[in-house]
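Field reference: sequence -> structure
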Amino acid sequence: MNILFVPSFFPNGLEDIVYSGMNKLRNINLYEYTLKPSYHPDLIPIEAFNKIFPNGVRPSWLLQHGSGKYICQQGEYVDLDNFDYIIFGSTRTEVLPLLSRTIKKASDRTVIIDGEDDPFVRSIFKYVKVYFKREKLDRSYSSLSGINKNNTISALTFLSRGLKNLPLITPIPQIRNIRERIKSLNMTVIEHQFRDCNDLDIDVSLVASPTNKVRLTYAKALENIAKKNGLKIYLNNGSMHPIDYQNIILHSKLVVSLPGAGYDTFRYWEVPYYERCLVSYRLPIIIEHNFTDFESALFFSSTAEFEKKILWGLKKDRYEDLRKSAKVLFNKFHTDLKRASRVIN
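Structure field:
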């Protein structure tokens, strides 16, 4: 199978995850158009690389990355007839000219991966073979009015952001009559090497910039829980070096994951990838083969439940069984190879 993969220019979570996984599949020839600098640091000047990654520091999810089998350079003519499928890693502005030409000539072979931080789909879904959405709302969140009013991440914020884009990708809510035409595809972690540690000297850690009220609420709640119960916590609401951030997770018994710009975050997947116990705010999106409360993770919807789950997980070292179960589940269903396989299948 010949696949043309069209990435955006800058690092883009879900797009980069799928690309990494596709490089590990044996049954496809992967062509990339155009060359994405973060995929090929050895092919671009160091000055250009450092503009994307200041001081040469990559995020943890790009510490290691594969390279496509073949590369089509920008400016070269691409004959779409040479490919079984054309996969667009995003609907960002830089890919729109080729996307427009592709859907006119090969809509039945065009695939969209929409990994943006919102629960809306773009109108382009009507003209392509398959449309993958990072945040596909579950059945209890099937419209704008269905988004839980207690969730402080505003759907209107997402909508106003989307309207700044071109009309081709105007966002629309996932209303019931179109919902089944959209496929879910969640984030995960690109496989990379890291040095594990056995010294779990932090009871609970929370690293999260204060980008919304949910994060502010639970950061304050964690401080109160720690003070009341004598817990050792790590709380950071600023930026961190990727390696320092990774080390905090690796030293933690429980790691809290909260929604950020969107519901599906790297944190949600990094915690089980590093084999630590995930303590997560319940997310209103579809996650196939998701972790299970009290078995492979701990979930909460209120500050009262947040405290109960933390104390339960720390009692008698219950977090040990949870983190091991989560790692098994992650390896079985949630690697970058599994994400790419879902797209190809």
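Note: The chain is about 30% helix and 15% strand.
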